[in-house]
Amino acid sequence: MSFNDSSRLESQPTTMRRSDDPQYSDDPEFREFSTKLSDKLFSLTGNLNRLSQQVALLGGRRETERVRERVQDIIEDTSTGFKEVGEGLKRIAEWGELGPSQKFTQGKLNREFKASLTEFQVLQRSAIEKQRASATAARAALDHEGDGISSSPSGQQQQQLQQEQELHLAPQDEVDFQESLIIERESEIRNIEQSVGELNELFRDVAHMVHEQGEQLDIISENVETTRNDTRGANTELTAAARHQRASRNKMCCLLLILAVVLTIIILAAVLG
């Protein structure tokens, strides 16, 4: 950069700022939309904490029908939330030209979403395994009880057989009730498995976006580094030009001072002579 270039730079208006550059422009709609997604992810994190606490109760003495209902409700609500955020991330991916700060926000949302979704899938699988083991054990116990009820010693009289059947009426009702509970539990397990399958597809889509975003961020990082180096070089040249300009002004002042002294001497000599 020459001395004349530095002079032109100094004479340019100072109203141009980074915000005036389309590359760094702020999109209020993007900011509002990305903030909503971030808030939704934060809410889903709370769901994951509650789900983790409830899943820990499954398969133990503290497992109850209410616990299983809470697990099912949280999973359904969280699945819906992840689907909504996933669709939002797809919308951001199709937003158009994004500036560096917006791409950074996009990458941050993608990574947070992927991490939270991975944690959710782990909890889902744990819930499935525990509920399946519990349902299998309950069905085995029920089948054993049913075998005991249906079998009767041979050679009994009709009156004794009738009495035993009357005694077994109440337990059979309990067996039917337990059977319905097991069927309901198995249905809940299938619902969770279906949710896992749907989220697996969403996970693959977001993982692909994260991978692409990572490559884009690498390119942005390289561009930023190049811009930083260019800026440093320009600053160095500007500093040198400014130093040269100050030196030139100092020399000019010295010459003017010497000329003034000489003129003063000449004038005094003429007057005195």
Automatic annotation (TrEMBL):
<dbReference type="GO" id="GO:0012505">
    <property type="term" value="C:endomembrane system"/>
</dbReference>
<dbReference type="InterPro" id="IPR006012">
    <property type="entry name" value="Syntaxin/epimorphin_CS"/>
</dbReference>
<dbReference type="GO" id="GO:0006896">
    <property type="term" value="P:Golgi to vacuole transport"/>
</dbReference>
<feature type="region of interest" description="Disordered">
    <location>
        <begin position="135"/>
        <end position="166"/>
    </location>
</feature>
<feature type="region of interest" description="Disordered">
    <location>
        <begin position="1"/>
        <end position="30"/>
    </location>
</feature>
<keyword id="KW-1133">Transmembrane helix</keyword>
<feature type="compositionally biased region" description="Polar residues">
    <location>
        <begin position="1"/>
        <end position="16"/>
    </location>
</feature>
<dbReference type="InterPro" id="IPR045242">
    <property type="entry name" value="Syntaxin"/>
</dbReference>
<dbReference type="Pfam" id="PF14523">
    <property type="entry name" value="Syntaxin_2"/>
</dbReference>
<feature type="domain" description="T-SNARE coiled-coil homology">
    <location>
        <begin position="179"/>
        <end position="241"/>
    </location>
</feature>
<keyword id="KW-0812">Transmembrane</keyword>
<dbReference type="GO" id="GO:0048278">
    <property type="term" value="P:vesicle docking"/>
</dbReference>
<dbReference type="GO" id="GO:0006906">
    <property type="term" value="P:vesicle fusion"/>
</dbReference>
<dbReference type="InterPro" id="IPR006011">
    <property type="entry name" value="Syntaxin_N"/>
</dbReference>
<protein>
    <submittedName>
        <fullName>t-SNARE</fullName>
    </submittedName>
</protein>
<dbReference type="GO" id="GO:0005484">
    <property type="term" value="F:SNAP receptor activity"/>
</dbReference>
<keyword id="KW-0472">Membrane</keyword>
<dbReference type="GO" id="GO:0031201">
    <property type="term" value="C:SNARE complex"/>
</dbReference>
<dbReference type="GO" id="GO:0006886">
    <property type="term" value="P:intracellular protein transport"/>
</dbReference>
<dbReference type="Pfam" id="PF05739">
    <property type="entry name" value="SNARE"/>
</dbReference>
<dbReference type="InterPro" id="IPR000727">
    <property type="entry name" value="T_SNARE_dom"/>
</dbReference>
<feature type="transmembrane region" description="Helical">
    <location>
        <begin position="253"/>
        <end position="272"/>
    </location>
</feature>
<dbReference type="InterPro" id="IPR010989">
    <property type="entry name" value="SNARE"/>
</dbReference>
<dbReference type="GO" id="GO:0000149">
    <property type="term" value="F:SNARE binding"/>
</dbReference>
<comment type="similarity">
    <text>Belongs to the syntaxin family.</text>
</comment>
